[in-house]
Design goal:
With 478 residues, the chain is an alpha/beta fold. The chain folds into three domains: 137 residues, Serine Threonine Protein Phosphatase 5, Tetratricopeptide repeat; 167 residues, 3-Layer(aba) Sandwich (Rossmann fold), CATH 3.40.50; 72 residues, Orthogonal Bundle (Helicase, Ruva Protein, domain 3), CATH 1.10.8.60. Helix content is 48%, strand content 7%. It has 20 helices and seven strands. The strands form two sheets. The chain has a five-stranded parallel sheet with strand order 4-5-6-3-7, sandwiched between helices. It has a two-stranded antiparallel ribbon with strand order 1-2. α4 packs antiparallel against α5, α5 packs antiparallel against α6 and α15 runs parallel beside α17. It is globular and about 70 Å long. The chain starts with a helix and ends in a 5-residue tail after the last helix.
C-alpha cells in the first residue's frame, strides 16, 4: 500500500484519510479515481486492485481498473474486464463507453459505434465528443428536413455507379459482395495428407496425449469394446493455450498415431467473398473428411470461424457459425470415424454453443512444457545436429516458461552463431551447452502476455470453471 500512498497525485487530505482507514473500499475507489484523472495510471491500477481484493464485486473498482489498463496500453486485459461487465443487464454506461474505445482501437469502428450508442442509451447525458467525431461515419445521422424528391430521377451515368455496392440477382438468388466477377460453383477439394509423425515425436504433453488416446485413438484400435458401452468412434476435442505450445503439432501426430488422413483447415479455406459460399466450403471440408474415414479434421485458430454470435453485426458471420455447429452435430450425416480437433489461443472468443456435449465435448488446456518436457523437446530438436556433450536437464531448468516454439527459437539462435564460427574455421563446429545457454539469454519467452490476458479471464469471467486449469498452472487459488 505504501507504494501508491507516496504518489504525488493524491491530495494530502485524502492521503491522510487513507492512512487512517486503508481498508475502506469506497474511499479507496474514490482516491483511485482521483489518481486516475491525474494521469498516474500505475498507482491507480494498484489501488483499484486493492479495492477489488477487499470487494471483488465492486463495479466502480472493476471499471476503474479496466480504464487504468486501457490507459496503460493493456488493451487485452481491459477488454476482458469490460466484456464481463457489459454482459450484465444493468451494465454501467461508462463500461459501454470504454468498450467503444477498445473496439475503435482494435480497428472495428462499426462495433465501436454500436457500443457508443448503448452507452448513450444507458446515460443520455454521457457524451464523448472526440470519440463521437471519430465514429461519425458509423453513427446515425441527426434528423434533418428532407427536400422533396424529384418525380422521376434520371438514371445514373456509368461513372456514378458505385462499384462497391452489393448486387443481387433474382435469377440466381445470390448476393454479390465487393469485387470479383462470377461466384465460384465449388471450391477445389482438399486431399488429406498422411502424417508420419507419432506421439513419440511430441515432447511432453503427457496429460493431453492421454486424453487424445482415450477420446480418439483407443476407440479406433478397440472399436468392439467401445461399441459395447455405446461409445462412437470420433468426436471433438478443443485445445487451447498460449501460442507455440504444440497444439498443431499434436494434431498431426494424432493422425500419424492412428494412420488416419489429416485435413488442416485454415481461415482462407472456408471464408469466401460470396454470400453462402463460406457455408458450402465448410460443408465440403466435412464431406471430404467423411469420405476418407478415419480422418482427423483439424481447425487451427477456430475462434476466427466460431466467434461468439452476440458480437456479430452481420448475418453472414452468424450463418457460418450455425453451419459449423450443424456439421459438428452430424444432423444429416454421421461423423463416426471423423476425429475433429481444433486449436485456439483465445477460447473466450468462441461461441459457447461449441462447448455443448456432442460438439467439442473435451476442452484441454495445453500449457507451456514442464521441465521434463523441455528436456525432451531439446533432445528431439537437436537430433541430427552436430552437438557436444549437453546437460539437457540443466538447460531445461534455465528455460522455465518457454513454449516449444521459444525452445526452437533458442536452438535457431545458437545454430546461427555457431554457423558464423564454422564458416570462419572452415569446419563443422558442434553445439555446446554454453552455446545454448547464451542463446537462452537472448531469446526471452513469448507467452507472458497471453497469460496476463488469460489470468484476467480465469479470475473475472470463469463462472463455469472452464479456465480452472489456468489458475492451477499459475498457482492461483480462487
Amino acid at each position: 500500500m505504501s507504494d501508491y500512498l507516496d504518489s504525488s497525485a493524491i491530495p494530502p487530505e485524502l492521503r491522510a484519510a487513507l492512512r487512517h482507514s486503508p481498508d475502506n473500499t469506497p474511499l479507496l475507489v474514490h482516491v483511485a479515481d482521483t489518481v486516475l484523472k491525474a494521469g498516474a495510471f500505475t498507482e491507480a491500477a494498484a489501488m483499484f486492485k486493492r479495492a477489488l481484493a477487499l470487494d471483488p464485486a465492486n463495479i466502480g473498482a472493476r471499471l476503474g481498473l479496466a480504464t487504468a489498463f486501457f490507459q496503460q496500453g493493456k488493451h487485452s486485459a481491459a477488454l476482458v474486464m469490460v466484456e464481463d461487465m457489459v454482459k450484465q443487464p444493468d451494465a454501467p454506461a461508462r463500461a459501454w463507453l470504454l468498450n467503444s474505445h477498445l473496439a475503435l482501437h482494435a480497428g472495428e469502428p462499426r462495433l465501436a459505434a454500436r457500443h457508443y450508442l448503448k452507452a448513450r442509451e444507458a446515460d443520455p447525458l454521457l457524451v464523448d465528443a472526440a470519440l463521437e467525431q471519430d465514429l461519425a461515419p458509423h453513427l446515425p445521422a441527426r434528423p434533418s428536413p428532407r427536400p422533396p424528391a424529384p418525380a422521376s430521377p434520371p438514371p445514373p451515368a456509368d461513372d456514378d455507379i458505385n462499384p462497391y455496392a452489393a448486387e443481387s440477382s433474382p435469377e440466381s438468388g445470390r448476393e454479390r459482395l465487393p469485387s470479383g466477377d462470377l461466384p465460384p460453383e465449388a471450391s477445389p477439394a482438399m486431399e488429406p495428407e498422411r502424417p508420419e509423425l507419432t506421439f513419440a515425436d511430441v515432447g511432453g504433453m503427457d496429460r493431453v496425449k492421454e486424453e487424445v488416446r482415450m477420446k480418439i485413438i483407443l476407440p479406433l484400435r478397440q472399436p468392439e469394446l467401445f461399441k459395447a458401452y455405446g461409445k462412437k468412434v470420433g468426436g471433438g476435442i478443443l485445445m487451447y493455450g498460449p501460442p507455440g505450445c504444440g497444439k498443431t503439432f499434436l494434431a498431426r501426430a494424432t493422425a500419424g498415431e492412428v494412420k488416419a488422413g489429416f485435413l488442416a483447415v485454415g481461415i482462407s479455406d472456408v471464408l469466401d467473398m460470396w454470400i453462402g459460399q463460406s457455408e458450402k466450403n465448410l460443408h465440403g471440408l466435412f464431406e471430404q473428411a467423411r469420405s476418407h474415414r478415419p480422418c482427423v479434421l483439424f481447425f487451427d485458430e477456430v475462434d476466427a470461424l466460431g466467434a461468439n454470435r452476440t458480437d456479430m453485426l452481420k448475418s453472414g458471420g452468424r450463418q457460418i457459425i450455425n453451419q459449423f455447429l450443424s456439421e459438428l452435430d452430424g444432423v444429416t450425416t454421421s461423423n463416426e470415424g471423423v476425429l475433429i480437433l481444433a486449436a485456439t489461443n483465445a477460447p473466450w472468443h468462441l461461441d459457447p454453443a461449441f462447448r455443448r456435449p456432442g460438439r467439442f465435448d473435451r476442452i484441454l488446456f495445453v500449457p507451456p512444457p514442464d521441465t521434463a518436457a523441455r528436456a525432451a523437446i531439446f533432445r528431439l530438436l537437436l537430433k541430427g545436429k552436430p552437438v557436444a556433450e549437453i546437460d539437457f536437464d540443466a538447460l531445461a531448468k534455465k528455460t522455465d516458461g518457454y513454449s516449444g516454439a521459444d525452445l526452437k527459437a533458442v536452438i535457431d539462435v545458437a545454430v546461427e552463431e555457431k554457423l558464423r564460427e564454422a564458416m570462419k574455421a572452415g569446419a563443422v563446429q558442434p553445439l555446446t551447452g554454453r552455446d545454448l545457454l547464451e542463446a537462452v539469454k537472448r531469446q526471452k519467452p513469448t507467452v507472458r502476455d497471453w497469460f496476463e490476458t488469460a489470468r484476467n479471464h480465469a479470475l473475472y469471467a470463469n463462472q463455469s470453471g472452464l479456465y480452472d486449469d489456468i489458475l492451477a498452472y499459475l498457482n492461483i487459488k480462487k
